[in-house]
Fold this protein.
Amino acid sequence: MSENAASAAEAAKVRPIGTLTVYGVGLIGGSFALALKAAGAVARVVGVGRSRANLDAALACGVIDAVGESDREAVSGADMVLLAMPVGQMAGVMQRIAPLLGARTVVTDAGSTKRDVVALARSHLGNAIERFVPAHPIAGAERSGAGAARPDLFHGRHLLITPQPETDSAAIDLVRHAWEACGMRVSTLDAQHHDRLLAAVSHLPHVLSYALVHELAQRSDAEQLFALAAGGFRDFTRIAGSSPEMWRDICVSNRDLILEELERYRAELERMAALLTAADGNALAHVFDAAREARNRWLRVR
Amino acid sequence: MSENAASAAEAAKVRPIGTLTVYGVGLIGGSFALALKAAGAVARVVGVGRSRANLDAALACGVIDAVGESDREAVSGADMVLLAMPVGQMAGVMQRIAPLLGARTVVTDAGSTKRDVVALARSHLGNAIERFVPAHPIAGAERSGAGAARPDLFHGRHLLITPQPETDSAAIDLVRHAWEACGMRVSTLDAQHHDRLLAAVSHLPHVLSYALVHELAQRSDAEQLFALAAGGFRDFTRIAGSSPEMWRDICVSNRDLILEELERYRAELERMAALLTAADGNALAHVFDAAREARNRWLRVR
């Protein structure tokens, strides 16, 4: 470990993690490994995943140091296990690793939904539930796979931890410090509250973007429509390039709150339709202006 | 004129425009001036606008060579007049310049809607209607004003011309060649068809983006919501930073076709709500996958 890395770990007031095991070495899991390595906050990273090609790539790029050939090999001796696969695979992995976890191994996740992950952990992690820290690093991009991983992905972004009554405070500290070493701003909140906020600012926009592209793509003149689409369309639909599997799992898991958000949005669209029908230019300009102002305020404080 | 510039103009098989007058020296009008200058395809640019500060900035940056202090001064001697203001100002400017236009001056516009601009030109341009070429350069950004202008804004983008039965073919050629010199791919189509296509891929997405930000900004916990918004939200809402005045005019003018598109989209959202309610992960994944594939195909051919 370099002197810089050592002092970075010192600054975060945490001993480096000896062995980190990452299930799902994609954008999030791979970037977590790279960021911890860059900060000198981890000694060794073991990767586990469904795609051998992706794991080989992760190994070749130095994202991980070893491939966990079995769950036993991957988990035994791990100080921290990060579950960074799509939420749909969470139950299976938890069931498999629960009997293999060491008495001090901390387990955490990076799922975009928290109520469901907490429920799964309760069902499947057994006694390890006390050392399970539900967490969500709010960072991402439409790219996926180990090749998309980068050490600065989390810098300046928010990590939300949704601890449970039984969660061990030392486990929370370990997870908090690891993500802080990646440059994240950490806060804690209730899992339900988390899921509601994310439904509004992340899950709903993804549904809206996918829906627009899907609706246009079904049309007989889709080719001509796309030919005339410009930069605004490209940005509006960037999130429609996200992983369908991941977003299927998020949508199914958090559907009650996403549906509530969708209802609010559909009501807003009904108001927009009324303004358009009435050709009410002043009211439209007022909506557009308020939206632009709110967005500009957000960009300034961001 | 430099040798390079001369050969660029030669390549476009067009004599350089002597004097171009731009009404509305913003992102589009200013970039048109800069692109023509870079191609050696214009000798002199006169700018006219409501904001003296913006015109002074345009002059200082070399976007324009002179400020037209009166319509008479601005228009007399112009070979081409580009109307690049918001559509809401179109009627007034047309009325004022109609009696001042030279017998060979070609007038064109850069409006995002074409049926309304054609109707306004019919009402207000008098005999000059034959030399009015309705056009729409599909390029833009959320920034506005002369300071946002850049010579490469139109490179590789589409220009749509919607000629009328009476439009002089030499006038069409002049406008076509000018925009080709800016690097645009030019095609012609019917004004109604133009407005329908743009309602789908541009106007509706703007309404959707404004609506999302507006709905969130009204809430009591707006600050917390925005604090957790990430890169996906930033891109989805980039177009909600666009000029409220310009988009008010577009929405009012093209409201019938935007409303049709909005109805189709609301029907799509109703289908999405049904899939969410049914927790139909397979169908959701199918929609997401089809959208991602369509978008990726589009990015490849773009």
Observations:
- Chain A has two domains: 3-189, 193-301.
- Residues 1-7 of chain A have pLDDT under 50 and may be disordered.
